[in-house]
Amino acid sequence: MSSVSPGRGRANSLRPTTIVAIVESFLVSGGARLAGEVTVTGAKNSALKLMAASLLTTGRTAISGVPAILDVRIMEEVLRRLGCAVQYRPETGVVLIDSPQDPGTAADYDLVRRMRASICVLGPLVARCGEARVALPGGDAIGSRGLDMHIAGLQKLGATVDSEHGFLLARAGGLHGATIWLDFPSVGATENLLMAAVLAKGTTVIDNAAREPEIVDLCEMLLGMGAQIAGAGTSTLVIEGVDTLAPTMHAAVPDRIVAGTYAIGTVMTQGDVRLRNARMDHLDIALDKLVTAGAGVEEKPDGFRIWCDARPRAVDVVTLPYPGFPTDLQPAVIALASVSDGVAMITENVFEGRFMFIDELTRLGADARTDGHHAVVRGRPRLSGAPVRATDIRAGAALVLAGLVADGVTQVTEVHHIDRGYAGFVEDLRGLGAQIMREDVPDLLD
Ligand code: UD1
């Protein structure tokens, strides 16, 4: 922390100003229409779990389509500290992971607090090593995110799970198959239990399992390693445990949330964008909502084209586990509603705290109110640029989209959140004609 003498800080300030930190922000000038082509990366929410799955075997796993984002770097470090040699080349999107014969078993708080998804090493470690010590996560500011289903499921598989000194400690003298009914189709719990069950003795059934494309992707990689899994993509996964798994090569599924973010931005700006490496079938409900709002969508060989020629109409949206409307696109769809013609009701059913970013959106002039897990948004023709703060990955991306349809300049701060989930966000948007730049700004305290 350094002090700056009077007059050298903010103009016209006679009081001393303290620079607390240099923070990165995005400056967005509103008014541009998104048009052109963009290639979507592999899915963050898949790549992180695929990387963790490499712990289930000894030797070299190769994963392609891994996005150059902060969370991948954190997962690299988690794996290194567990004894893996990890080489990631952002320019090719390939990560090579050499997993040792005898991996370590601890994931520390300094990493887990930065990325909650680190918890996904719990299942593989307890299955492979009979022990896992994973710090209890903090995570995004999007509501309480329990681990009860992860814990109850591991206990059913024969592990003892305790919490001590801020760590979750799971131990097992050999896991065994079991039938597990999840209270809710949790993505993380399904993944952890799946990765534990593939090496457990006997048959495991995970009922009310999550059906997200990223779960199917993980199942496909595990099948490539020699696991026996039936029912991928349905709510009942049946896993026949095997003694060992072998390293494999796998390509991460395209990121449906990144594709959905660009699709929503296209509709908001009345643009015309061709998305490459995008799976329309993974965005069925989201694209149907955009068509109801007035967009046109056309399937293409490796993706789709989306366009909108007039101001979008308001559409109601309800988030639900896949194949329902993804909660990760809820902030973007609220940004869309804020400039649509009419009134939209958005209902959030997955994360209770996910409306927090609406306070930031209202700084841009959005007319949005929340009541419990419902938000009512009255669309306005345009928003009005202002400084706003990204509160999590998806909220940050949504504020950038809002900046595209705001008069003047919108400054989005705390963009490290956006960097956690979107590789080359600024470059992609600039390529589509947006006026956006990244800049370092001093965080000042008067
Ligand atoms: C994953 C995604 C996240 C996405 C979410 C839902 C990653 C890295 N993140 O998060 O982007 O928004 O799926 O699609 O893949 N819950 C419990 N107890 C548990 C587990 C979950 O109460 O043991 C609750 C959570 O608090 C939350 C809901 O279930 O309210 C959904 O959580 P879950 O599906 O597990 O999401 P994540 O895996 O954390």
The named CATH superfamily of the largest domain: Enolpyruvate transferase domain
Q: Could you name the CATH topology of the largest domain? A: UDP-n-acetylglucosamine1-carboxyvinyl-transferase, Chain
- Which structural category fits the helices and strands? alpha/beta
Which word captures the global form? Answer: globular
Beta content comes to: 25-35%
Task: State the separation between the terminal residues, measured CA to CA.
Answer: 13 Å
Rg estimate, integer Å? 22 Å
How is the biggest beta sheet arranged? Answer: 5 strands, mixed
> Helix share of residues?
25-40%
Annotation field: number of helices? 14
**CATH structural class of the largest domain:** Alpha Beta
**Ions, cofactors and other bound molecules:** uridine-diphosphate-N-acetylglucosamine
Question: How many separate structural domains?
Answer: 2
- Flag low-confidence runs: 1-13, 139-143
Q: How many strands in all? A: 27
> What is the level-2 CATH architecture name of the largest domain?
Alpha-beta prism
Mean pLDDT: 92
